[in-house]
Amino acid sequence: MASRLSFLRSALPVAAALIGLLLLWQLGAMLFDVPTYILPRPGAIVATAIEKAGLLGSGLWITSVEAVLGFFVGTLIGLAAAVLMILAPPLEVALIPLVIVINSVPSIAFVPLVLIWFGLGIGSKVAIGALAVSFVVLLNALAGLKRPEADAINLMRSFGASRLGILWRLQLPAAMPSIVTGLRVGLARSTIAVIVAEMMGAYAGIGQIIYQSTAQVDYLTVWAAVFVASLGSLVLYGVLVAIDRKLVWWR
After folding, report:
1. Cα 183 from Cα 180, distance rounded (Å)
2. Where in the chain are the domains?
3. Selection from 97, 85, 219 nearest residue 146 by Cα
4. CB under 8 Å to 20, separation ≥6 — which residues?
5. Which residues form a coiled coil (predicted)?
6. Chain segment 36-82, per-residue pLDDT in tens
7. First and final C-alpha spacing in the chain
């Protein structure tokens, strides 16, 4: 009961702000008679989303699956790399500069290459999503795993704890807040990367719907697709926040 009340307290201000923004948007568009191709009214966008619910729902499902798969693959790569660097510090010295060089270029810039390597199917979208996620998870996990002080690590060693035991019982719990922060950022990056990849080459998905609707000068469908994609991203983020509260319950 208490958790539900806490959820309502945090959700109501967000819902009120969103409704207020939509009302201002609707009134402003009506008052200034803004053309649809510049800024359509929210009512028209919602009506189009309802009218094309089948198309948009199918595209959202495909994009969500690709983004979530890319998120999980990137998370596993980032966490595994961080753990290896903690267990073998020379690896961090050798690999971090290379990782930074690769990620100094936005992951979206690699989309054409990824499409060539993996094709127009789901593989290329998962790959670009994983690339977008792995770097931010790696950096946050590294920072978190290094958080425990040397005195705490030495104390556990004095009681006979192995390196893996210290990692599991001390460093990983201390790193959870940083890791979860990386996961939140990574989920957004994965969704963006997948949608852009779909716009540049895909058989289906929200990004491909946006691309085709733009080519057909169907701006209401473009806005409806963006609206549906935003709702989907919000749901995924809400699921991640719920998982965060379970994993990092002491915050």
Report:
1. 5
2. 1-34, 35-239
3. 85
4. none
5. none
6. 778 888 888 889 999 999 999 999 999 999 999 999 999 999 999 99
7. 19
Distance CA 104, CA 41 (A): 38
Identity of residue 26: Q
User: In whole angstroms, what is the distance from residue 111 CA to residue 197 CA?
Assistant: 6
What SS3 class is residue 60? helix
Q: What share of the chain is helix, strand, coil (3-state, %, to 5)?
A: 85, 0, 15
pTM of this structure: 0.86
Whether the Cβ atoms of residue 186 and residue 136 lie closer than 8 Å to each other: yes
Distance of alpha carbon 10 from alpha carbon 1, whole angstroms? 14
Phi, psi for residue 202 in degrees, rounded to 5:
-165, 160
35-239 maps to CATH 1.10.3720.10: yes
Q: What is the pLDDT of residues 106-142, one digit of tens each?
A: 788 888 889 899 988 899 999 999 999 999 999 999 9
Q: Under a CB-based contact definition with an 8 Å cutoff, are residues 236 and 133 in contact?
A: no
* Residue 5: pLDDT over 70: no
Q: Which two tokens stand for residue 203?
A: 């058989």
